[in-house]
Design goal:
Mean pLDDT of chain B: 86
Order of helices and strands of chain B: EEEHEEHEHHHEHEHEEHEEHEH
CATH architecture of one domain in chain B: 3-Layer(aba) Sandwich
Largest sheet of chain A: none
Distance between the termini of chain B: 36 Å
Radius of gyration of chain A: 18 Å
Largest sheet of chain B: 6 strands, mixed
Helix content of chain B: 25-40%
CATH superfamily of one domain in chain B: P-loop containing nucleotide triphosphate hydrolases
Structural class of chain B: alpha/beta
Strand content of chain A: under 5%
Helix content of chain A: over 70%
Structural class of chain A: mainly alpha
Low-confidence stretches of chain A: none
Radius of gyration of chain B: 22 Å
Number of strands of chain B: 13
Number of helices of chain A: 10
CATH class of one domain in chain B: Alpha Beta
Largest interface: A-B, 22 and 25 residues
Order of helices and strands of chain A: HHHHHHHHHH
Number of strands of chain A: 0
Distance between the termini of chain A: 18 Å
CATH topology of one domain in chain B: Rossmann fold
Strand order of the largest sheet of chain B: 6-7-8-3-9-10
Oligomer: heterodimer
């Protein structure tokens, strides 16, 4: 626990100076505030921008941040130094993971508030976003641990991130894409957010997100073992 | 536990290539041990095996009484390391880099300023690592390695590429750690450094230890010429056998105040290495 907190605190300072990771946390919350405050078109669904950016945020920020942080530590040898200093791989991953989850939840909170959500609805919004963030983090961790360096991680992260973050938006314009996108957690997050207060949560949403979570956990477990971090 | 490090018949193979071929070595408490060898001799592989980063193919290795194939936190807490690739957080300041490890090692925060002062980085405490020179980075990595007052300190090429001032400072700190009681295992390809610092050295060539002993012992062992070299004030160089037959002649030069320098001609560690392996030490 002590080591995990030390990693968490280190990460706060480090990320504040790491523009490429910092921008991932900020871009969608800031865009959501701007768009929600400045664009009002007649007939546009309520919370349109907040909902759209929340789904994109879930598919992008945690995945990119997790993969970038882990692969950088591997490349710069800081990870090896940590392990040689009695930090266990699980403590490290928990430290970085909890940091990214907290920051992304704060970002999600900003997006929710910018969309006008309050009270119990905001809480539901955050629960849905939180589940999506968890899946993205596991995928990012799998990419980060299996990549030798940042360059290799980025070349894998970008296409994966584009798929998960843009599918919910593209689904709005094309039915065929929507059918395929349904099996992804980010699309389910988008469906759940858009249906808040209307359709509620059904079994299909829960099952698909759980399957995605399980698949991401298995993928991460495999990458973790293969990386020799154990 | 008699030795802090013990390696018995260590063999390491990468695919079909045998990188270490039956390495044996022992390091005692409070000793500075130097592992010398040219690039690719297997020095870093030995450090990696000792620190549990690699497993040997054959043989047994222990540090602080524990098998290196299954090191526990007990050993990691008593160990300090400075690797060739320093592994510093570039965006964090010197102080913040050390603060992270102070928390991990449960070391009081006051120790951070103490070690920064020891490596002469107190004034650069708030400077990000990305703005430090190579020498300063090396000193910071050493400060991190000694912060938990380790029983065993691994230094992989600690002075490689550093300016003379930084090297002197690193040597001073290494001696200080030895006085405190730490055993130091260092790899280097700098023969002069090894000769000055180490109590014992091992010469490693192509995965085999070809010679072991104190630097002085090794040089004397290969002193086949056993001669004295006298440089006279008039510029002449006189080489005499190192024995009683030359005593009168040496006495005469000294009596006439003609001697500028006088040396025995035992070989340098580099010459010994060349004699043993037929290779230059690069």
């Amino acid at each position: 626990m002590k080591n995990m907190i030390a990693i968490f605190q280190k990460q706060i300072k480090d990320t504040l100076k790491n523009k490429s990771v910092l921008v991932q946390f900020l871009i969608f919350p800031v865009m959501s505030i701007i768009m929600e405050c400045s664009i009002h078109i007649e007939g546009m669904p309520e919370h349109f921008f907040a909902n759209m950016f929340a789904a994109m945020y879930v598919g992008m920020a945690p995945l990119v941040a997790m993969s970038a942080i882990i692969s950088e530590e591997k490349e710069k040898n800081t990870l090896r130094v940590l392990f040689m200093s009695n930090v266990k791989p699980t403590e490290y991953l928990a430290g970085v993971g909890s940091y990214i989850w907290v920051i992304c939840m704060l970002g999600g909170c900003v997006i929710g508030i910018s969309g006008g959500y309050k009270g119990a609805v905001l809480l539901s919004f955050l629960v849905i976003v939180g589940a999506g963030i968890l899946v993205s983090m596991l995928i990012g961790a799998a990419i980060g641990t299996s990549s030798k360096n940042q360059m290799a991680a980025t070349s894998l992260t970008v296409p994966v991130m584009v798929v998960f973050s843009f599918l919910p938006m593209l689904s709005m314009f094309n039915e065929s894409i929507e059918k395929i996108a349904k099996i992804t957690y980010s699309q389910q997050v988008s469906i759940l957010i858009n249906g808040m207060g209307k359709s509620g949560v059904n079994l299909e949403n829960v099952v698909i997100i759980s399957c995605n979570l399980l698949a991401a956990a298995v993928l991460f477990g495999y990458a973790y073992k293969k990386s020799g971090m154990t | 536990m008699e030795y802090v490090i013990e390696m018995r018949n260590i063999v390491k193979k990468f695919a079909q290539k045998e990188v270490l071929k039956g390495v044996n070595l022992k390091v005692s408490h409070g000793e500075i041990f130097g592992l010398l060898g040219p690039s690719g001799a297997g020095k870093t592989t030995i450090i990696k095996i000792l620190t549990g980063q690699l497993q040997c193919t054959e043989g047994v290795s222990t540090i602080l009484g524990q098998d290196t194939a299954a090191l526990t936190s007990f050993v990691y807490r008593k160990m300090g390391m400075m690797m060739d690739n320093l592994g510093l957080y570039e965006r964090l300041s010197c102080y913040d880099n050390l603060k992270l490890f102070a928390k991990i090692y449960d070391v009081p925060q006051g120790r951070i300023s103490e070690v920064l002062k020891q490596v002469d980085l107190a004034e650069a405490a708030k400077v990000p690592v990305s703005k430090l020179s190579k020498g300063m980075r090396g000193r910071l990595a050493l400060a991190r390695a000694v912060m938990n007052e380790p029983e065993l300190l691994f230094l992989d090429e600690p002075s490689s590429g550093l300016d003379p001032q930084a090297v002197t400072m690193i040597h001073q700190l290494i001696r200080k750690e030895q006085k405190r009681g730490a055993a130091i295992f260092l790899t280097t390809h700098n023969m002069e450094e090894a000769g000055k610092l180490c109590d014992h050295i091992a010469l490693l060539n192509e995965g085999k230890i070809v010679e072991y002993g104190s630097p002085k012992e090794i040089c004397l062992r290969y002193n086949h010429q056993n001669k004295l070299q006298i440089r006279l004030l008039d510029g002449r160089n006189v080489v005499l056998p190192n024995g009683k037959f030359a005593a009168d002649e040496v006495k005469e030069y000294l009596a006439k105040e003609m001697v500028e320098t006088i040396h025995s001609t035992e070989p340098s560690l580099e010459t010994v290495f060349m004699e043993l392996t037929g290779r230059r030490f690069e």
